[in-house]
Automatic annotation (TrEMBL):
GO terms for biological process: amino acid catabolic process; carbohydrate catabolic process. NCBIfam families: ManoateDhtManD, PRK15072.1. GO terms for molecular function: magnesium ion binding; mannonate dehydratase activity. PROSITE patterns: MR_MLE_1 (PS00908), MR_MLE_2 (PS00909). This is Mannonate dehydratase. Residues 128-262 form the Mandelate racemase/muconate lactonizing enzyme C-terminal domain. SUPFAM superfamilies: Enolase C-terminal domain-like (SSF51604), Enolase N-terminal domain-like (SSF54826).
Amino acid sequence: MKITSAKVFVGGPKKNYVTLKIMTDEGVYGLGDATLNCRETLPAHYLQEYLIPCLIGKDPRNSEDIWQYFYRGAYFRRGPIAMAAFGAIDMALWDIKAKLAGMPLYQLFGGKSREGALLYAHATGKDIADLEDSIAFYLDQGYKAVRVQCGIPDMPTSSYGVSETKGDVKNYITNFVTNVPAEEIWDTEKYMRYMPKALDRLRDKFGFDLKILHDVHHRLLPREAAEFAKEVEQYKLFWLEDPTPAEDQDALKFLRQHSTVPVAIGEVFNSIYDCNHLIQQNLIDFIRVCCTYAGGITHVKRIVDLAGLHNVRTGFHGAPSHSPLCMAAQAHLNAWAPNFGIQEYLVLGTPECDALFPSNHTVKDGMFFVSDEPGLGVDFDEKEAARYEFQRGYHPVTRLQDGTVWNY
Ligand SMILES: [Mg+2]
C-alpha cells in the first residue's frame, strides 16, 4: 500500500483551517488538521514544500516510522510550525489505519473507557451580570462545566476571553482578521482585586455543583499567581489555567507552596519535552496539549501516558484555533484515556463548519459522544472548501497601562 498524493487546503468560515488530505493507491484517504492559529500559511507551506514530497510512495500504515522520519530525521526539531505539520500527517495516517481496520479510531487505542466525555464551554461577560447570563445560557443547554472570563471595571479594553459586545453570551468564534494586531491594555492590580469578587458572586448565584474554570492567560508574575491562587482557593475551581507563562516552569513551585488550586497548563506546548518537568514534578494537575501542534495522535498519546504515571489528567486545548479534525482526534483519545479529565469545546456547531467537515460526532448535555464510523469520523467537503480563501489575522498584542508589552 502506498501514498500517492496529498493536498493542503487553507480557509474556512471565519477561520483559516489548514486541512491535509492524504490519498493512497487503494482509494482510502486520510484527513488531518495543521491549523496554527494566526500563522496558518506556515505549516501549510512546510507540508507542501518539504514534507509531502517525502510522503509519496511511503506505506501509510507505518505511521510510527513516518513520524520518526520527520522528527528525528530533521536537524531542527520541535516548534509549533513543524509539529503542526507532523500533527496533520499523523492524524491522517491514523484515519487511514482505522478506516482500513473498519473501526472507530478509539478501538485501536484499547476501546472506550467512558460513554461520553465531559466538555467545558466558554462563558463570557463584559460585566458580572453579562457573565451570569452567559453561564445561564450554557446551563440551559446542559453544560456542567464552564470557563468564566469577566470584564474588569475601569480596564480600558476588554481583558482576555471577554467579548467586546455587551450581551454576547456565546463569544462563539473569535474573528482575528486584522491588517495588523489589535492592542489590548492589561492592569494586573485591577484584575487581582476584581476577579475574586466575581468568582464569589458566581458561587453565590450558581452554587458549588457547577464546575468553574478560569484562564489567567499567562498574565501574572510567579508571586502574583501564588497570591491569586491562594485567594481563589475557597471558590473550588475545577482548574486555574496558565497562571504564569510556562517557559519558567519552576515558577510554579511558588504557587504550589501556597495553594492547592488545581493548575492546567500546556495549550501552547508542542513536545513531550515541554510537559515532562511539570508532570514529573507534580507542578500541574491537567495537561492542555492538542493533537495539532503537539505532533499528532502518536506524540500526544505518549504525553497522555506520561501524565497518567503522575496522576495528571487531560484537558486538551479545544479553542476555535483547531478544526473539527483535531477535535475528532482528541475525542477518540478522550474516549480511551484512563486519565481523561475534561475537554474544551467550541469548534462544532455552526452550519458552515458542519458543511465543511461533515461528521456524526454528537454533543448533548455538555458531553461529547464520539462517532462509531471507521477512522476519525469526520469528512471534508472540497466543494465547500472552494468557497473560502486565506485571510491574514493576528491575536491581539497586550500592553500595560504605561505601554510596556505584556504577555498575550
Ligand atoms: Mg487557555
